[in-house]
Write a structure and sequence with these properties.
11 strands, globular, about 300 residues, 12 helices, seven-stranded parallel sheet
């Protein structure tokens, strides 16, 4: 039985993690949750999972949550950055899932790494903003950082047991997002809703918009540099519209190893929560005959 703490439990990644925990009561127990201001969803998660510690962003939200959960015993509710850090370093947790979007998750994630926690990292901005600090802290404390981004999870899986000298480069795949076929001259007038209409993935709004602009792939290159201790010259990007091949590793002998599955974030989330074991039936089995064709193209630097 693993005890799980989730930073960002009401967001897209956090909510899917809650579903996995709820569906595997014999394997996981949620002991601490941190969220923003979505009190209704958080209350539902609390009643489903019975965590001992919860943190929200401000006192107003905390007051509302205390009123709505007044019938629950042994529930501690904290606020702000200190509450977030308390969830990150909760003594009884075995895994900390860091899924807060943006730099807001940096300090709490770093706090978990500094005390040697096993961190499932969906908050790429932590490595973008402070990769050197995060990696150095993990080495000093003995913490494990296992990526939850689908691309980096794929690379992590392909690299298990490999020697660094065997790696020629890693190749991140990109779906191209919602605007891949839009003429360049129309991009200046794209609406937020159009950018949020991702063809393959169900993700939070920031990541979905960043996918449409390919900004997300730039952030992922930086994330890969720190996660896998590789220079940018050994990190490539290809556009793969089907989002079936989640990333690849090219070895010095010219062979490539890829990780494939249907585009569903429950696969990398479940891999991080269950590691080193794999959970059964995280996603529907991929039928390659039905898929038929996988295509790849170079990203457009002009776009």
């Amino acid at each position: 039985m693993k005890n799980i703490a989730i930073l960002g439990s009401t967001g897209s990644i956090g909510s899917q993690a809650v579903e996995i925990i709820r569906d595997h009561p014999d394997k996981f127990r949620a002991v601490a949750l941190a969220a923003g201001k979505n009190i209704e969803r958080l209350e539902s998660q609390i009643r489903a999972l019975s965590p001992r510690l919860v943190a929200v962003s401000d006192e107003l939200s905390a007051g509302q949550l205390r009123r709505q959960c007044s019938d629950l015993r042994n529930l501690e509710i904290l606020t702000g950055e200190e509450g977030l850090k308390a969830v990150a370093v909760f003594p009884d947790s075995d895994v900390v899932l860091s899924s807060i979007v943006g730099a807001a998750g940096l300090e709490a994630t770093l706090a978990a790494v500094q005390i040697g926690k096993f961190v499932g990292l969906a908050n790429k901005e932590s490595l973008v903003a402070a990769g050197a600090l995060m990696v150095r802290s993990a080495r000093e404390s003995g913490a494990t950082i296992l990526p939850v981004d689908s691309e980096h999870s794929a690379i992590y899986q392909c690299l298990e047991g490999r020697r660094p000298a065997e790696i020629r480069r890693v190749i991140l795949t990109a779906s191209g997002g919602a605007l891949r076929r839009r003429p360049i001259e129309e991009l200046a007038s794209v609406s937020p809703q159009e950018a949020l209409n991702h063809p393959n993935w169900a993700m939070g709004p920031k990541i979905t918009v960043d996918s449409a602009t390919l900004m997300n792939k730039g952030l992922e290159v930086i994330e890969a540099r720190w996660l896998f201790d590789l220079p940018a010259s050994k990190i490539a990007v290809v556009v793969h519209p089907q989002s079936i091949v989640h990333s690849l590793v090219e070895f010095v002998d010219g062979t490539l190893l890829a990780q494939l599955s249907r585009p569903d974030m429950k696969a990398p989330i479940g891999y991080a929560l269950g590691y080193p074991e794999r959970l059964e039936n995280m996603v529907r089995t991929l039928d390659l005959v039905t898929v038929g064709t996988l295509t790849f193209e170079a990203p457009s630097m002009e776009r």
